[in-house]
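User: Okay, second chain of the day. Same drill as before: sequence in, structure tokens out.
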Amino acid sequence: MNYYEHTLIARQDTSPSQIKQLQEKYSKIIENNQGNILKVESWGLMHLSYLIKKNKKGNYLHFKLEGSGKTIQELEKSEKIDKNLLRFLTVKVKKLDLETDYFKKNSEDTIKK
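Assistant: Same drill. Structure tokens below.
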């Protein structure tokens, strides 16, 4: 089994309940294909570097998972036909960092500003 980081970007007009449904949908696909989700992070609505399908912003979901190539193949196959998604990216990594939340707001940062 290999480790992967998988990020997907949903359209900016996607509601929070739809984001939750997307998370559950892709979690089930991973688990049904002998994958194991180690961590899911919702990074929220962020600006895109350039317009993607006439969207300036996107809702980011980030999965840290363990699985095989078949797991990723099935996941990406279903994402290609999903109209709510703008982009997705899967990166194979040797080791996962499960402690750090890179896009979480620190209380110290808000006090300094």
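The chain has one domain: 2-95.

User: Thanks, on to the next one.
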